[in-house]
# Entry
Amino acid sequence: MVMNQSLLETVNLTKVFKIGGIIGGTKLTAVDNVNLRIDSENPAILSIVGESGSGKTTLSRLILRLVEPTFGRVMFENRNIFDIKRKMEVMEFMQKVQPIFQNPYESFNPLKKIDSCLYNTALKLHVAENKEEASERVKDSLSSVGLDPELVLGKKPHELSGGELQRVSIARVLIPKPKLVIADEPVSMVDASIRMSIINLFLDLKKDLETYFIYITHDLSTAYYIGDLIAIMFRGNIVEYGPAHEVLSDPLHPYTETLIESIPDISRKWSEEIKMSGFELKEFEAAGCKFWYRCPYATTRCQSNGPKMIELKNGRSVMCFRYD
Amino acid sequence: MSKDQILNVQGLIAYYKLRKGDVRAVDDVNLFLWPNEIVGIAGESGCGKTTLIKVLYGLVEPPLSMLSGQVLIDVNGEEIHLYKNTYEVKQLWWKHFSYIPQSSMGVLNPVIKIEDQFGEIFMRGDKNPPKKEIRKIVEKSLDALGLPSEVLRSYPHQLSGGMRQRVVISMATILNPRIVYADEPTTALDVVVQRGILQIMSKLQRDLGNTFVIVTHDMGVQHQITDRMVVMYAGKISEIGGTDDIFKKPLHPYTALLIESLPRLGDKSERKSIKGSPPNLLNPPKGCRFHPRCPYATSECAEKNPSLLEIKNRRYASCFHPLGQ
# Structure
């Protein structure tokens, strides 16, 4: 079998944080042995879904090369990004992989016009040689996110609405024409009535500019709406991975099941009541499967042993003993 | 106020008085509450929904100021004007109505154990039972919320967000108040915990038979647990009605477009969002505040301000051209 080229691959990626002092401190495994792969064949959107504390933001920071892993590596275009040390190569990586953050008001300097941030991106990443070229690039990318450069340039962040400013930050990301955009909860601060316009923008960019996206969110409904692939994270592990439609219509992991049932969707109402655990805090320290306390199918095996990721057909995989 | 209502609001106007002008967060609001129901206040961020329940709860502090209107509440069969100074609002808190804020840390004192914080609430009640009895009542209430009794001996920071929120819900209902106001009670929580807490709240409401007012921007949450819904836009109420009725056949174009824009599970067809963005409340548009974004707007909408009218049986909308009429 011929393997497809990979754009991004994480290999046994692990990040352990130490909490507390040198003596008596505890360890928290925020990202635990994560293996993810995005093929470079077709532009795709990978949605990573998880609760707060599931490690999804740490994972995105690892892929962005903002934190060093404790163990494992991140391969981008078949090169470990943590081996990149030379300044020019770092710059090249930054051109190809760009982030969008949750709160657009924190991404921009509140005292400066948004122009400065946009021009700096163009000049410092060396995608434009001089001011004229930069100006052209900036105007191009502003129009590609549906903003009129005439109306936006020259304004300060507080003069724009949250939705507009998030569009500007997406425009900033597009200036170096990146291959991969990592968007961490990009719409959770945006008003509900304009949220979908940002989400639809990602879909358009995927189609028109052939950009790959990693969309990180806690919201399964938007994750499904734009994602080609979905990865479900729980307490540092990816517990289920596969094509979005199949994961949602036929969830394999018990946690994915609970998650899907718990969405306050407007097309159905919750039927049965779920059990609330008093054990939330202990889940991080569980020796076996971390979902053991709440899992309806748990056996004694799950309590003592952690399951491994099991690959199934159709590009799906799941971390649960039931599919061993 | 008619006999079957427990709260009635008429012509309520509350602005934030700032140096650069008035932020018209609550502008001419009329509504009422019945006993034994869950009412949801829906709307986007900045539409004035939090300000509205703050005013209903009696928590008006500068720069927020109440300009006109009245809030009538029923206290043991007696009709009371909340802002007539004859009554000290704080004496009614916890006993007659309580408030669950978005962040549970806003209610809990970080340096006092949970048990002692319950003790302080009981001091506000009509009878102040001995400590042993308090412990029994509280343990029973916590047990109903799925919390172990060790919680009582903990400090707030030792509990997770979901557990703290359940402690606050227990506090807000322990003296059995007539009305419980909750401001985005589950927004900071994960969906699974959110579902657990919402189910607990609706079960509590059914057991106690009082009225819950839940403010949330999440239309999915509104759909799951509320009986009636108040939809707000830019400081005004655009629609009031039964939750199922509103989701089935919204009257106000804003409600309709908002519902249409929501992604549904298992449906990948394209979702359109409402064009434009919500207005700045320092300088809201003339006429109907939704008219610049409304596809049905006429010249009348840009000139005159529609008032909230009963369109059909117990369904209210403030629109000159309600849908399906």
